[in-house]
């Protein structure tokens, strides 16, 4: 009996190793697309996509992307490693169009206009990538043309799409937002752990969503003090307060 269990466990280990070996190239490909490739603007995305496809063909690294669209239009289905398969059996990983497998979105007559959020390829993939980055404690900057659903996507992901370890606070910058107001607002959401150390309640992660980050007016030297405060926070994991004491966050 013990022997049977042992051999079953070894088989599982071997299967898992095989699955992981088959996923290494697609994982690296995904990372390259959503790090190096994510810095491209719309026109250069075509160039990057062709370059990526050519290199994969040359190296014979599968799975290959479907011919249509750009490499950005597909996400990795990892064949059962984390993504479910219909029969729960491992499968060869494939590139899946972002919109495939989504549930149909219904809009009812009594749905408020402001609550309507039509899934598009941009909202679906931005939401997915936002979630992954937050899980790994990376700050996220969303840029894009006006009216492209950035605010709606982020608010929806933060309010409904994260697990309950996350606490989310929302604020919006305007031309009149000052560094003092920004600091007061952030401080008011943090608990004091001990002298000079602040943070969210224990075991929780706190996400601040700052809408319209670019809005604060330039001061006399051309800087935007509220943004400088946030930059300092990102770079040094803390802030120099107006009382000239350093706070770790
Ligand atoms: N996919 C969508 N589904 C539903 N509504 C949308 C969608 N895309 C945009 N809208 C609507 O367009 C309007 C603008 O969206 P939103 O405020 O999220 O844009 P934004 O990218 O944040 O723009 P800005 O850069 O000006 O802040 C909102 O009223 C939103 O409801
Ligand atoms: Mg917005």
TrEMBL record:
InterPro entries: DHC (IPR026983), Dynein_AAA5_ext (IPR041466), P-loop_NTPase (IPR027417). Gene3D superfamilies: 1.10.472.130, P-loop containing nucleotide triphosphate hydrolases. Pfam families: AAA_7, Dynein_AAA_lid. It comes from the Eukaryota. Residues 23-77 form the Dynein heavy chain AAA 5 extension domain. This is Dynein heavy chain AAA 5 extension domain-containing protein. It comes from Timema podura.
């Amino acid at each position: 009996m013990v022997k049977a269990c042992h051999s079953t466990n070894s088989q599982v280990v071997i299967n898992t190793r095989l699955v992981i070996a088959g996923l290494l190239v697609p994982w690296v490909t995904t990372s390259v697309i959503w790090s190096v490739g994510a810095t491209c603007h719309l026109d250069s995305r075509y160039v990057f996509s062709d370059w990526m496809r050519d290199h994969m063909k040359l190296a014979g690294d599968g799975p290959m992307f479907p011919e249509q669209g750009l490499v950005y239009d597909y996400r990795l289905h990892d064949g059962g490693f984390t993504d479910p398969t219909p029969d729960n059996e491992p499968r060869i990983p494939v590139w899946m169009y972002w919109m495939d497998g989504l549930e149909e979105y219904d809009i009812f007559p009594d749905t408020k206009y402001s609550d309507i959020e039509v899934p598009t390829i941009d909202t679906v993939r931005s939401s997915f990538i936002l979630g992954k980055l937050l899980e790994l404690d990376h700050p996220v900057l969303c840029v894009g043309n006006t009216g492209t659903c950035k605010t709606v996507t982020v608010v929806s992901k933060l309010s409904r799409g994260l697990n309950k370890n996350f606490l989310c606070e929302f604020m919006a910058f305007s031309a009149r937002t000052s560094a003092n107001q920004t600091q007061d607002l952030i401080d008011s959401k943090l608990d004091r752990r001990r002298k000079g150390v602040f943070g969210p309640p224990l075991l929780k992660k706190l996400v601040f969503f700052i809408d319209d980050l670019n809005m604060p007016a330039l001061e006399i030297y051309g800087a935007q003090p509220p943004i400088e405060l946030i930059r300092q926070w990102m770079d040094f994991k803390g802030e120099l307060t107006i009382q000239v004491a350093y706070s770790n966050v």
